[in-house]
Specification:
This protein is of the alpha+beta class. It contains 19 helices and twelve strands. It folds into three domains: 93 residues, Potassium Channel Kv1.1, Chain A; 141 residues, Serine Threonine Protein Phosphatase 5, Tetratricopeptide repeat (Alpha Horseshoe); 138 residues, Apoptosis, Tumor Necrosis Factor Receptor Associated Protein 2, Chain A (Sandwich). Strands 6-12-10-11 form a four-stranded antiparallel β-sheet, with no helix packed on it. It has a three-stranded mixed β-sheet with strand order 2-1-3. A three-stranded antiparallel β-sheet has the order 7-8-9, with no helix packed on it.
């Protein structure tokens, strides 16, 4: 391609007159603007920015009046790409190019293969301020923007990554983006990736992406109580597969296995694991105290166990389990119009002593923000009646309360978590997780930006709100006895 791969039109010149020639090439657009503005005294705005962008792209494409040559060498090969460019435009966008081109008209740049493949896109952005990228191009493009200090592109690619965590890709991309965020020190991108992985861990554990998780990332995930997964047993099975495949050093494997919350696994499964798990057998000495403690937890009553062990630690805190013993899915059609109620049952607590005891929960969901007569069926615009309602009156409300009281509740408190599912790129994923004790009135942001009255709301799947209600029973230490 002329101007991009070594070619140059016969009329293109090099030397000190390059910038002046560049300005002359752009003058027709400016002259047209002056002519349009002459005449009547009334003010007007005439926008020829698209024509100017087209001329800038033509400059890059044909190499007209170029005064700079960039030679991009691909690491590990003899491939060299040549770009005839303009120092003024490069320096305006990039502090690094401003320094590199100060005393040089020909510069050789060395780039890894994935970055070299995108260099034409990168240079074109410097000319027209627009770029299109795919998931697998995000890291090399961000790397180019960082290396050449193009701050606007750097921020733009980072925002693209944060907003495309849920996009579907054949090999997965969130784990790779997290590791890259750690490498460059982008704390915001790290946290966005971590939260997505925590809320959608079951999907990640069942994909090829699981094998690419580093030991450091896995340790961070295992420390979290907001992981969304079917059960602790599912998590242990995935960690065993990771250890079996990656074969980490003994201390690393033992640290990860000790982060499993064994008291959250029913005793029957714990017995099976001791005889069937090769990974647990290999590291049994490092975790046998935790297994013994878990069996004690299931054998004794929680009140008796609490006299001797501190239950206020993560080992005895449930995660966000999707299994039926911990909660229930709830799909609400037309959630902007009608108050809804439902009920479901959970087991009293994770201890086997409480496994057969059931608690019935009553749930109320209310749009709360309009009387029924004014609630819309679905529309893509907001009516004047709706606009007149204060935003603070518009927050939906959800209340989860037990249907009965019991002495069995002594020493147990219940944390509720509501997962909100969304469909993105054909997959149903967790968009938000809200935790509270009794009512979402305790929260300032529950579905605050959900736009439930709009058919096109990203919070709705087939015009319905998809929730999963989870009750997490938490035991408390009652009496501490010195050992």
């Amino acid at each position: 391609m002329a101007g991009l791969a070594g070619g140059r039109p016969a009329g293109a010149r090099r030397g000190g007159c390059g910038w002046a020639t560049l300005l002359l090439l752009l003058l027709p657009v400016q002259a047209a603007q002056r002519a349009d503005l002459s005449g009547e005294a009334a003010g007007a705005t005439i926008n020829h920015s698209l024509a100017l962008l087209h001329r800038l792209q033509e400059l890059l494409h044909h190499g007209n009046a170029s005064d700079t040559t960039l030679r991009v060498r691909t690491a590990g090969s003899d491939e060299v790409k040549v770009f005839h460019a303009h120092q003024l435009l490069l320096a305006l966008q990039s502090e690094a190019f401003q320094s590199l081109l100060r005393n040089e008209s020909v510069v050789t740049l060395h780039e890894p293969a994935d970055s070299a493949a995108l260099f034409e896109k990168f240079i074109r952005y410097l000319y027209c301020g627009e770029i299109s990228i795919l998931l697998h191009q995000a890291i090399p493009m961000h790397r180019l923007a960082s290396k050449y200090r193009v701050a606007t592109l750097q921020r733009g690619v980072a925002e693209y990554m944060k907003s495309h965590l849920a996009s579907e890709s054949s090999q997965g991309h969130v784990v790779g983006w997290y590791h890259y965020a750690v490498q460059i020190g982008d704390a915001g991108l790290q946290e966005s990736c971590l939260q997505f992985l925590a809320w959608n861990l079951s999907a990640v554990m069942g994909s090829a992406e699981w094998a690419t998780v580093s030991a450091e990332l896995l340790a961070l995930l295992l420390a979290r109580s907001d992981l969304v997964l079917q059960s602790e047993l599912e998590l242990l099975t995935a960690v065993e597969a990771w250890v079996g495949r990656r074969q980490p050093e003994g201390p690393v494997a033992e640290k990860l296995l000790r982060a499993i919350r064994y008291p959250m696994i029913p005793p029957g499964h714990l017995f099976q694991l001791q005889t069937q798990s090769a990974v647990l057998a290999r590291h049994h000495g490092a975790i046998q105290d935790l297994l013994f403690q878990a069996f004690q937890f299931h054998a004794a009553s929680p009140v008796h166990f609490a006299k001797y062990f501190d239950l206020n630690c993560s080992m005895f805190l449930p995660r966000n389990y999707l299994a039926g013993a911990w909660g229930s899915p709830w799909v609400l059609s037309n959630p902007a119009r009608d108050d809804r109620s439902t009920s479901f049952q959970t087991q009293l607590g994770p201890s086997n002593h409480d496994a057969s005891k059931r608690v019935t929960w009553n749930v109320l969901f209310s749009p709360r923000w309009l009387p029924v007569s004014l609630r819309p069926v679905y529309s893509d615009s907001v009516s004047g009646a709706i606009q007149s309602v204060r935003l603070e009156d518009g927050r939906p409300r959800l209340v989860i309360t037990p249907a009965m009281t019991s002495s069995d509740f002594a020493g147990v408190s219940f944390q509720k978590t509501v997962l909100v599912g969304v469909r993105q790129q054909g997959r149903i994923l967790v968009r938000h997780a809200y935790s509270f004790h009794q009512s979402t009135d305790e929260l300032a942001d529950f579905l605050a930006h959900a736009d439930l009255q709009k058919r096109a709301s990203e919070y709705l799947i087939d015009n319905a709100l998809h929730l999963h209600l989870i009750v997490k029973p938490v035991y408390h230490s009652l009496i501490r006895v010195r050992k």
